[in-house]
Structures are given as C-alpha cells and as structure tokens.
C-alpha cells in the first residue's frame, strides 16, 4: 500500500487473471484458430466425461485448471517492478489475442478499482467533514453560551474560556484541513 491507502495493482493482478470470473469470460468467447471461430475448450481439447455423476462440476473445474495450471497465461513481475504477461497457445495469433483480451480485462479491472477507491475516499472525507463541521458548531455554541453566562474575569472563568476557545480553534483547523 502507498501512503494514500491505495493498493499497488502489481501486487494482485496475477490473482485477477486466475479469478473464476475472468477465466469463465475466456471460455465464453469465441477465438479465431485454424481458420475457424472456436471456443477455448475446443482449442485446448478439454473433453467432457459425462459418465460420472458430477461431470458438470468436474468439467468446469478442468476448464479452470487448464488455464490456472497449464501455463496458458502468466503474469510475472521482475525485480524492477516491470510486469510481463505471457501466453502459451498452440497458435501465435491466438497467443496474441489472449494477451490483448487479458490486457483489456486488466485495464478495465484497474480502472474500476481506482474509481471504487476514489468513491470510498470521497465518501470517507465527506463523512469526516460532516462530523468535524458538527463538532465545530457544537464547540462554537458552547463558547457563546459560556460567554453569555460569564462576564467575570476570575481565573476559573478565564481558564474555562481559554479551553473552549482552544476547542473552537482545533475544530476550525481540522475543518479547514479537510
């Protein structure tokens, strides 16, 4: 995390391309391969074994595992922080298409993540600003009430007035900072 509370995308992008939602989107798409438009399971030759009772679950998991463990897509970060996306496909055009699709997906994911973070920060600041504004108003009202009731110059009154004035000043500073 940086000082602003944001997460460095390079810390989690490898998990994004292993996510079930992303992997499912790869399989839902048709890919140009061998002069035809084919589903990824056809290209990767993932077979359905309908003889087992839970074949749908096994098939779904086989599809996910083929990419997760088959080194079809990988994202590596070197020591300088540069990210490298690699795809291993039976055809160079398919590898390029997989990379392009993955980069677009990652770009959208980062954009949405940044927008979500910005909304959360804005919401937090607005809530905090409202709290501080209310604190400032309460402390100002307390100082006004105190001054209306106490016209004396006794040390006790002066100390209490000083405390209330400091509270108003502190709340005002916090309000101005936000």
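-> sequence recovered:
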């Amino acid at each position: 995390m940086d000082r602003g509370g944001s997460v460095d995308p390079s810390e989690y992008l490898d998990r994004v391309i292993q996510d079930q939602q992303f992997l499912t989107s790869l399989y839902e798409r048709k890919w140009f391969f061998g002069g035809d438009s084919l589903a990824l399971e056809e290209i990767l030759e993932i077979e359905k074994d309908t003889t087992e009772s839970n074949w749908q679950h096994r098939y779904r998991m086989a599809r996910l595992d083929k990419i997760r463990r088959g080194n079809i897509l990988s994202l590596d970060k070197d020591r300088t922080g540069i990210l490298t996306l690699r795809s291993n496909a039976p055809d160079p055009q398919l590898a390029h298409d997989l990379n392009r699709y993955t980069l677009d997906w990652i770009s959208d994911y980062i954009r949405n993540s940044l927008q979500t973070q910005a909304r959360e920060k804005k919401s937090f600041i607005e809530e905090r600003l409202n709290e501080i504004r209310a604190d400032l108003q309460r402390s100002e009202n307390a100082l006004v009430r105190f001054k209306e009731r106490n016209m004396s110059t006794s040390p006790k009154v002066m100390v209490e007035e000083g405390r209330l004035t400091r509270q108003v000043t502190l709340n005002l500073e916090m309000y101005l900072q936000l």
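The mean pLDDT is 83.
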